[in-house]
Amino acid sequence: MGLTTHVLDTMHGCPAAGMAVALYTTDGERASLVKRFTLNDDGRCPDGPLYRDGELEQGTYRLVFDVATYFKERGVALPEPTFLDKVSLDFGVAHPEQHYHVPLLVSPWSYSTYRGS
Fold first, then answer.
1. Is the dihedral of CA 107, 11, 114, 22 positive or negative?
2. Whole-number mean pLDDT of the chain?
3. 5-55 residue pLDDT tens
4. CA distance 102 to 20
5. Does the predicted TM-score (pTM) go above 0.90?
6. What's the CA dihedral at 89, 92, 93, 99 to 10 degrees?
7. CA 23 – CA 36 distance, rounded (Å)
8. What is the model's pLDDT at position 111?
9. What is the CATH number of the domain that holds 18?
10. What three-state secondary structure class fits 92?
C-alpha cells in the first residue's frame, strides 16, 4: 500500500510547508538517494506517496528532514550550531504489502515519530 510521510511544525501549530526532505534506501552504512522533495502546504510530498501500491520493497530506508533550514526560513532565531540540524529517521519495512506512514512532529528543540496509518 505504499509509503507516505507528513510533517507537523509543533512550534507554530501547522504543517511544515517548505521543508526539504530526502528519501534513501539503506544497506548497512550505505545509503542510496531515491528522491528529494519539498513539502507542500499540507506538510506532505507534493507528488503523493513516496512509493505507491506495489512499489515498496522489503528493506531499510532513511528519511532526512532539513529541520534547521526550515525554522531559519520561518524567522526563528536559532543558536549556532543548532540543536537539531537534519533529523534522520532510519526504519525498516517488513511487510511491503502494508501501508507505511512515517510522520514527524518537530520543533527546533524536539521531535517525535511513529508508524502511522
1. negative
2. 97
3. 999 999 999 999 999 999 999 999 999 999 999 999 999 999 999 999 999
4. 15
5. yes
6. -30
7. 6
8. 98
9. 2.60.40.180
10. strand
